Amino acid sequence: MPATLRSHLIALQSAVHSAPEAIFYRKLKSCPPSPPQWDRISYSQFYLHVQKAASYWTEILNGHGIKEGDVVAAWLSGMSYDDVVLVFGLSLAGFIPQLISLRLTNSDVVTQLLIKGESKAVIHEPSYGDIMLSVDIPVFSNVTAEAIDDLNIPPRQFDIAETHDREDKAFIFHTSGSTSGSPKLVPNRYGWIDGLWPKAKACWSSCSDEGQDILPCIGSICHVGQMFLVLSAFQRSACIVQPTSLPYSPFEFQTMIRDCGVNRLYVFSPILSRYLQLAKTDASVLQSMKSLRQVLYTGLPLAEEDATWAFKQGIKLLNMFGSTECGPLLSSSAHADPAAGLKALPGTAYRFVPIDEDDRSPERLLELVVLETSSDIPDKSLLDPDGTYRTGDLFSRVSRGLYISRGRNDDWIKSLNSLRCDTKSLEENVRATCSDLILDCVVVGNERASPALFVEPRISMDFTELSQLIIDRIRPFHSRLYLHERITNSNLVLIVEAGTLPRTATKGNIRRRQVEHDFKDRLDTVYASVSRL
User: Any idea which GO molecular function terms this record carries (predicted)?
Assistant: First the structure.
C-alpha cells in the first residue's frame, strides 16, 4: 500500500531548498603528478545538473521504447561527479538504476546481471569504449554534466513522488563478492531508504562547531557505503570531497583537510589502521586526526588496541557495522571507546541467535538476524522462508544491548577496502581444475588488496612452475570475478610441503585464520613485492 516515505530525491530537494549555495561536491580538476586541486559545485548546481541529465536520458531512452519504471543499468567506476549525476538523474527521470561497479570487468558476468535485473539498457563508463555484451539491449556511453550543459537542453520539471509502496525498488545494487562466479542482486527499496534517515542521524555525531560538515568519499556510488554517505550528506547539507584514488594516502588526507576543509572522515578500518599507525610516530598526522569532528569507520573490526589508543588520544571514533543488504546495522556510542561494543541503530528489530544451542558460556557466538518488522529488512528475494534475514555475521554479547563483532559464520573474507570475497568458491574451482596437482588448498587475504592461495602439492614439481600452472588453469574462472577477488599473479600462489597447513583436530579442515597468522611474515613479503609490480 502506498505510504508517505522520505526518499533520496525528497532529501536532495530539501537540501537544495534549505541551503542552495552550500557546496555539495569538491570535484577533482587535477590529478597526480600535479598537486590535487578541486572545483566547487553547490547543491543548486548539482540539482540543475541532475535535472538536465534526467531530461537528456529521458529523451534518449524513451526513443528506444524504455519508459518510466524500467530498470536501466549504470556500469561505472562510481568515483566521479558525473557518475553521481547520472545515478540521481536516472532516478529523477523515474527509471530504476541498476548499479554495476567497474571492478566487475567480465562482460559475460555483467550480461548475466543485466538479465537478472531485467535492465532495458546499459550506460557505461566512457573509457570502456565499444563494449560487447551478449544481450539485445541498447548500450550507451555516459555523458558528462558539462557536455549536457553544452547541448542547451532545457531541464524538465519532474514531479518527485511523496508516496511509494514500501516494496517499490529505488536502486539495484550487487554484493561486493561473487557467489559461484557471479554477484548477488540486492534490490534497494523505498521503505529501506525511508528507514535510513534515523540511522544516518544516529551515526552522524552532533558537533558544536559552526560551519559545514566536509568529508571525503568512502568508495564508489555503485556500492551501498558511498550511497549511504551521499544520502547522509543530503540530510545535513554536507560537502563531499573526491579523492584522487582509493585508498588515498595520508599526505592526500592532510591536503584535503588543508585545501578543502575536511572535518569528518568515513573510512574502512584497514585504511584507518594505517593512519593510526602513522599517527603514533608522526605528530602532524595525529593532530590532523584529532582535529576531525568525527572518524566513522566500518567494514572490519579495528584492532582493540588501536581503537583504545585513538580514543585516549582524543580522536572522535565511531564504529559502524553494516552490510550491502541492510546498510548500517549497529554502531558504537558517540564519545565512548568503540571497543566497548556496538548497539542496534534506531528503527531496527534484530535477534541475536546462538549458533550452538548447547553453548551456555558468556562468550558464546550469536548470529545477527534481521526481523521482518525491522526498517532495514532487505528485499523479499533475499529473505529466509520465515521472513527474516540471516546476516551470517557473528557477535558476542558484552552487556545488555551491546555486542562485539566476531567475524562471519561462512567462508567469506574482506579485502583491504572491505569488499567481500567468497573463499569457498575459489577453493572449489582450484580443486576442480587442479585435482591432479594439489592435495589441498586454502584461500586467505583478509584485509589484503587481493586473495592469496596456499597449496599443498600432490606432485613433485618446481614450486615456481607449479604456481604458474595453477594460475593458468584457474584464469578463466577468475576472469569472471571482481578485481579484488582475483588471483592473477603466480607470486600469490604459495606452495608449502604437504601437511604444513594447520588443521582442526576433529575434521582435519584447514584453519584459514591460523594460516593467515602463521604465515603473516611470508604474506607481508609477497604482497609488498606484488604491489611494486
Answer: medium-chain fatty acid-CoA ligase activity
